Amino acid sequence: MATTQTELDTPAPPVVEPEPQETQNRSPTRWIWRGVLAAFGAVLLIAGWSYVHALTAPGTDSASVRSIEWLRDHGGSGVVNAVERWWYSHHQPKKGGPPPAVLTHPPTTAPRPIAAATPAPQLAMHHLPAPSPIVPFATEPVPGEGVWHPVGRLVDGVPAVYATALRPDPLHTGLAAGLAWVDPSLVRTDLFAGVRAPGGSWAHEAPVPLSERPSLIAAFNSGFQLNASRGGYYAEGRTVRPLINGAASLVVDSAGRPNVAVWGRDVQMNPSVASVRQNLALIVDNGAPVAGLDQNVRGQWGSTLGNSVFVWRSGVGVTRDGALVYAAGNGLSVSSLARILVAAGAVRAMELDINSEWTHFFTYDAPDPTQPAVLTGTKLVPDMRASPTLYLQAESRDFFALFSRATP
Fold it and tell me: Which residues make beta-bridge pairs with 377?
């Protein structure tokens, strides 16, 4: 048969290869990696949301502090502790130096009174005598070092709080720790929750309400965050964290009188207990520093910085006659903090919070008698970092507030 030209010019149809069975031949590794990346992305998303939430939550902490605390709470406490130890170990206070300004220029402002509804003789009969001067540790004391002077507002004409300053040891002569002495006969103590710690809603929660500010005398910081305190928290009939037998405890009774004690030894739960804030173990007992402060065995004085590193520290104690004494300052070890509290008359004392971000003691005054709720605050030590308005704001952490027993 003859072949036409058209048939010769027509190309042969292409050969179509069957498509490979992709689902059968694809390696499962690709699916595994996709799952890993998806999970990693979800973790980043959740972590990012958590971090942003921490930065924007109510409270007075700076962004850097919030970032560090967020890292601690999310598995990074070991890294933070290591960095802190390295930093403070390489930035210790210098030895020697001239006396600080708090010693050479002590405050001279006279305290203002808070008028009392209770007759003056009734209050005056029960207040404690003024504290005795402290013998300074420095070999060449500055005139007035260790001498108490009234601060804050008077209660029915009587000073309720006295303050002084002294250098913590003979070597660091350019530093001074501040001390406050509080008369619980004239002042009642309340534990206030912060807006973030210990969490939940409280009747006594930061800030100190306007209705209570006409009676506000002073306020000071509490202890470590609860997850690092080795102790518990009880207030308003609620237990946030179980109280631990043997833990150092700042206990406030229903009359507003404070006590520093060993829980389970010196005091137990009873109807008169209003609040308990525990932190580590006692650093002073029976009027002397406890044994083993220099060893910091198993981190019992704080795993972050232990005992020997000199940093901002604070502590509180109780005297034999029931007065409350508070101490704070830079360049303190646990041992030197204990010695200062013993010098101030403490028979039992405990460490509170450490580092400059969280060591605060403020006294308050109302410059205008017609506006007793409009307060100005004064730092116990001028170089305390926070503003005296800290506890008049939505403070992040719990703290103690001191109020006049007189009714304005």
Answer: 364
